[in-house]
Amino acid sequence: MASVPSLAATVHQRLAHALSAAVPEAAGADPMLRRSDRADFQANGMLALAKRLKGNPRELAARVTEALPANEEIADIEVSGPGFLNITVTDEAVVRTLAARAADERLGVPYAEHPGTTVIDYSQPNVAKEMHVGHLRSTVIGDALVQILEHQGEKVVRRHHIGDWGTQFGMLIQYLIEHPHELDHSSDAAGATGEGEAAMARLNRLYKASRVLFDSDAEFKTRARDRVAQLQGGDEETLRLWHKIVDESKIYFQGVYRLLDVEIRDEDTLGESAYNDDLHQVVKELEESGVAVRSEGALCVFFDDVKGPDGNPTPLIVQKSDGGFGYAATDLAAIRDRIGTLHADTLLYVVDARQALHFRMVFETARRAGWLPDGAARQLPFGTVLGKDGKPFKTRAGETIRLVDLLDEAVERAAAVVREKSAGLGLTDEEIRERSTQVGIGAVKYADLSNSLTRDYVFDLDRMVSLNGDTSVYLQYAYARIQSILRRAGGDAKPAAHPEIALAPAERALGLHLDEFADTLAQTAEAYEPHKLAAYLYQLASLYTTFYDQCPVLKAEGGPDQVENRLFLCDLTARTLHQGMALLGIRTPERL
Ligand code: ARG
Q: Any idea where the DALR anticodon binding domain is (predicted)?
């Protein structure tokens, strides 16, 4: 494993040295190197520096040029405009750097210098309820961030803070006690679609039946309320039935995760209930330290800048006046556990933007209590999934749309695309199904991840499975096309690079972009922004398409070495696409 500095990093360093040699008082200044359309790179740091030193930027730039020792990377450097430096690198340097990347299993991507421990709170559906598009976002974004951070060498602890506690369980459990066969599997309709779906159907039935009784029968309502107290007090029979409901839900969740192609482990699933035993301690410490105060019987934390529409302060309620604990209490207990016991440096919460106020208040409370270092916790709020009408995605009847239905539809649409594209290839039904799943699920994930997290986006399957434009299918086709070229080239040996061969413009553009992979990953991880990686990969596929159109590979005019050098570029592009897509949780089928 050898990390390979990008050409941008090497050139940057050469310029920085030349700068401090030419102008000693500028030592440490940033030459501000960027990729550019004019040349390969442009450095515009001379402008700010000249201002600071009260000099002439063009003259300063010229001095830097002169101070630059002869080197292997820079083919040409010239002063332009008000004092920019335009830099062109040699073809040879491009290919040599790429060859070093290709020789490394990690494509030359370094590990972070100071890795720490990050807890990511993501994919937290609610027990006895259907998963919806909000849970899709949390799952897909969280999974990508886990992969991206782990790839950088960060220790990542996954936490699925599922909604498995609360007053509705009193109603469900009481109903089960009075109707002991309600969750029995034998009563399933034959032909139910998959065990996960069957489990959800049973839970839905239980939910509806108990709700009806709860709303119509005052005595049942009282019994259900008492049942909550027994649940929180740890009554054995109550807990047994609670477990039954939770397990049934987990069967359903796993069915959705399997379809979504994400791995969610039971040992990482610590729902709200997991913190039940800590809640009294949380309350005690908050009350004793004065962080929280009793107000009308409830234990509250107040904030100067959080007020309701009436101008009165809106508190965070840690304990209700009836003694019950809510969502805020379990989140506070979880913070104590994650910082105090897991010794995490960073806590991330991949949760809907509509919960921003909740997290702001919870973090501030934990900070005041001394449980959370300043700035250690961060919500990564995500926007809403919209229907084509631009409103939050609902069925015509105004109900939330079931995630499984959406995913099934995505796979179905993808099947149409796959069938059309592979007509005449004689694929079996099984092969078509497998590819359609990879294409359809990839399309949904990519559409989600290619938007910046906070943006709302429209769930438009027609667009998502389109072969043209910024879609995963486009990227998957680029990958599959390269694999087909490599197969046609024959031979199992990896194609070698030939740095002595001059590059066509499309090859240089592709090569320089390939060289930016490691830097892109570092930026993506640093900002927790998967869409940066998605944008990089889309550009990679686009540059590859241009290369493919302009530069014949197997029939290159320059002879066998040029053929091999182009195959080398193809191979590295494929490996980069594959690695990048894998970090986003998206498959790259070998054939499409
Ligand atoms: N279960 C919640 C929901 O579906 C999300 C939980 C988010 N995580 C947390 N630590 N509060 O809205």
A: 475-592
- pTM value is 0.95
Amino acid at 317: I
Q: Residue 69 carries which side chain, given as an amino acid letter? A: P
- The minimum-distance atom of ligand 1 relative to the CA of 159 is 10
What Cα–Cα distance (Å) separates residue 177 from each residue in 68, 173, 182, 224, 237?
82, 6, 9, 10, 9
The residue ranges of every structural domain in the chain are: 7-89, 117-292+328-379, 403-583
Tens-digit pLDDT profile for residues 105-155? 999 999 999 999 999 999 999 999 999 998 999 999 999 999 999 999 999
Q: Token match 């790259």: residue?
A: 588
Measured in angstroms, how far is the CA atom of residue 402 from the centroid of ligand 1? 18
What CATH architecture does domain 403-583 belong to?
Answer: Orthogonal Bundle (1.10)
Ligand 1 neighbour 161 (Cβ under 6 A): yes
CATH class of 7-89: alpha beta
Q: Which two tokens stand for residue 328?
A: 């805020």
Q: Give the mutation target among 120, 124, 360 for probing the ligand 1 site: most ligand atoms within 8 A of CB.
A: 124
Nearest in space to 132 (alpha carbons), one of 50, 19, 247, 252: 252
Q: Considering only CA atoms, which residue is closest to atom 6 of ligand 1?
A: 124
Architecture of domain 117-292+328-379 in this structure: 3-Layer(aba) Sandwich (3.40)
